[in-house]
Amino acid sequence: MSTDQSAAPSEAAGAHPDPWVELRVHGVSGTPPESILLSAFVTQVAGNDRGRFFRPADSLGRERPPIDGRTLEAYHWGRFTSGSWTQALWLLIIPFGIVNAAQFTLPRPRGRWTRLCHATAGAALRTVGLGLTCLLVFSSVETAMDLLAWQVLGAGTGGNNRWWLLAGLAPPVGVLLLFYWFGQTNTAGQNPGQDRHNEPKDARSQSEMRSDPWRSAASFELDSELARDDFFSGDPDAPTLRRLHGAAVLHMLTLVTVWPEWLAGSGPAAVGRLLAFILLGLAAVTVFFLGDPERDGGVAWWHKVAAVVAGPQLVVGVVLLIYGAVLIALRSDAVIGQAPGVTADAMPGINMVAVGLFLVVIFGLGLLLLASVGLSLGTRPDQKSSRDRAFRRFAGGLAGWILGSIGTYLGVGFAAAFTFAARASINRMVADKVTVTPILQRVAYAWGLTILLIVALAVVGVVTKKVRNPTFVAAAKAAFLFPPGSHLHRLPRTWIRRVASAMFLARAKNYVAAIFALLAVYGLVLSLAAGGEQLCVDILPGCDPNIPGILGRISDQDSLRAGWLMWLGTIVLSGVSIGLVILGRGALRAEKSRRTVNIVWDVVAFWPRAAHPFVPPPYSQHVVAGLRRRISWHLGTLDDSRAAPSPPGAVRARVVVAAHSQGTLITAAALLWLTPGERERVGLVTCGSQLRNQFARAFPAAVDLDVLDWLWKGYGQRWRNLYRDTDPIAGPVLSWEHTAVEDPARLRSVNFGNWQDDKPAADTVDPITGRRICGPDWRLLDPTPHDRALMGGPVFATHGHSDYPGDVQWPLAVSEVLPAPPTTMAPGGIPEPRTADATESVPAQKS
After folding, report:
1. pTM for the structure as a whole
2. What's the pLDDT at 271?
3. CA angle centred on 104, ends 99 and 105, rounded to 5°
C-alpha cells in the first residue's frame, strides 16, 4: 500500500496524460499553504496579498513540474479574516457577528404570513443589534463617566471637578469611532457572475439572462441565497444601518450627559434631554422598520427614506452631544439635583439608561422568539423520508433565535465584564469603594447562575462519557477489525481507547444545538425576571418587584448580594474581561495567535452585513468570485478583459476542486456559478465538511438539500466526501441512516446514489485500509491503520478534523471524481467538453 502523499491519479498505461489541476481550498484558521499542499516550500503564482494561489516549489522557490499531468495548487483565502493586528481587534465585537449571522439562519418564507414573520424576525434582530451596540458603549460610559468621573473624582460637586465629566466622554466616543471604523472597513467585492457582462443585470431582460451562458443556472433553478448575485453585493441598507447605530449611541450619550443638568433645574438641559430621547426613539423605530431587503426584491421607498434620514440623524446627534458638553462647561456650581431616589453615590440617570437599553434587548429577543416560531411553523417540511429527516433544521427552525440569544448574552456579559474589571481595578486604588449600576449587578448574578448550569452540563458530559465508554471502545475495535472475518485488530490495543475517546468527543457535536437552546431558554427566563424586577424598582415604583414562586427565589439577587453566587458571577465576568485582554495582546504579537483568535470570524464573517453594521467585512463576496474565476482561468473559459488569457500550454482540460471544512461552503457557492460546459470538466472532493450536519441545518436559506442535490446532479455525480468518526466538527454529507459498525456484516446507509427507495443499502469496507464506502461518502479510519507493529507507517496522533490530504485514500478519491479527458479540441487549443450523458453512472469503487 503506497503512502506517497504527492502521488496523483494516473491515466491509462502508455497514454500521454492530459493536463489537469487539483485545486485545494482550505478551511478555518487561515491554514498555511505549506500545510495545504503538504510541501515544505511553496511559491505564489496568482492573486494578491489576501486571495492567494500557491503551488509546491523546491528549496530555491522554483515551481515543481506537474506529475502525471497534474498541477497541484492551493487557494489561500485566510488573510481576509486573519493575519493582521487590526483583525485581532475583531475579538471585541464577536457578539455583533453572531447576531448578524443569525439573520441568515432564518428559513425561507413561503407565503404572505411567513414573509411577515421573516420580516419581523429581521426587525427583532436589528433591534437586538442596536441595543447591544448601545450597551457595549454604555460599559465605557459606566466606567469613565460614573465610576471614575462621578464617584471617584467628584464631578457632581461642581467647580473644576465638572471637567472630569467632560473628559469621561472621550472613552465612549472612542469606542463608537472604533465600531464605526469596523463597519466602514471594506473593499469592493465582486459578484460571481459579473465578468461576462459590464451592463447591470437589470438592463437585460429575463430571456437574455436565461440565455446568458455565464449566468448561473442555479439562480433560476434554486431558491438559495448563494445563487443570488445580490447576496454577494451585501445588504444595500448597511450604510444606513451604520449611521443609525452611530446616531443612537450619540443620543444615548447626550441623555447621560444632560441628565444631571436636567435634575438641577436647567431649562436648556431639559430641552436637550427631550430632543435626545425623541431622536433616540426615532432611530430605534427606523432601525426596526428598515425592512427585509433580501425578500423585498429591491430597495423599497421606505429604505430610501431611511437612507435620507440617517445622515441628518448622525449630524444632529453630534450637535446635541456638543450642546450637552457646553452646558456642563458653562456651570461652576453643583450639578446634582434634588429628586426622589437620587443620591450622589452614582451619576443621576445612569441606571435608568441601563435599564432602558436592557429592556430594549429583551423586547427584541422576545419578539424574535415569537416571529421565529411563526416562521418555523409556516415553513415546516413534511419530513416523510429519511433524507428530509437527515437535513432537518436545528431546533425545528429556531436557530435564528438561539444564535441571536447566545450573541446577546455574550454581549451583555462582555459589557458587565468590562465594567466589573474596571471597578475591581479602581477599588484597589481608592478608599471609598465604587459600585456599578444594579442592572449590571443582576447580569453578574445571572452569569453566576449560568456558570452553575454550564458546570452541571459538564458533569453530565463526564458521567455520560464514563457510562458510554464501553460502547465507543467496542465501536473502535469493530472499525479496526477488517477485512471481514479477520480476528486481528489493525491498531495496537493502547490506541483503541484513545480512538474511542476521540469518537465520543466527535459525537458531542450532535448535542451542541440542544445545549445552545437550553442556554438560550435559561438566559431568556433570567433576563425577563431581572428586567421585570428592575423595571419595577427604577421606572414603575408602584408595582411589586417580587416575582412569586421559585423563579422569584432564583432571580432574587438582593438576598445573595454578599453570597457566593454574586462572587462567582463577578469572578467569571472579570476573568472573561482579563482573558480577552491577554488573548488580544497575544494575537497582536504573533500571527499564529491571530489565526487562532479569528477562527470564529471564518464562520460568521462569511455572511454579509444585515442585522448589524459593525461587523467585519464579509469575505464571501471576494473568495467565491476569486475561486470561480480561477477555475474558469484554468479551463481557458474566463472571459474578462482585466485578466491575462491562459497562455499556451497552461490550459487544463479538467479541474478537481478539493475543499476542506469552511472551504466546502465557499466551494459549493462558487460551483453554483459555472457554466454547463465548465461543469462537465470539474470534479469535487470535500473533506471535514459541515455542509449537511451544520450548514444545511443552521442556514437552510443558503445551503439545503436542494442545493446539495443540484451540485450532485449538475456535476455528473463526480463528488466524493471524506469524513472521520473522530472529527469533532464535521461528518458525512452525502449519506445518512448509518448502521453501527459493531456488526460488519450488516453495514447499511442511505446516500445520494440510492435515496429514491429510502431504504438503507449495503455499504462495503475496503479490505486494505478499512475505508467504509457509503456510496459517494467515504468514512476514513483515524489514525490510518498500517500494521500492529507500526512498520508500514506512523501512528502518532488522531487527526480528527485535519490532514485529510495526507490520508492514503486521498489520491483514490481524486481519481474517482476526475472527469474523463475531452475528446476534441476547440480552436486555440482549448479542450471541448464531451457530450453530457444523463445516464452516466458513478465510477466503480476501487480499493
Report:
1. 0.87
2. 86
3. 90
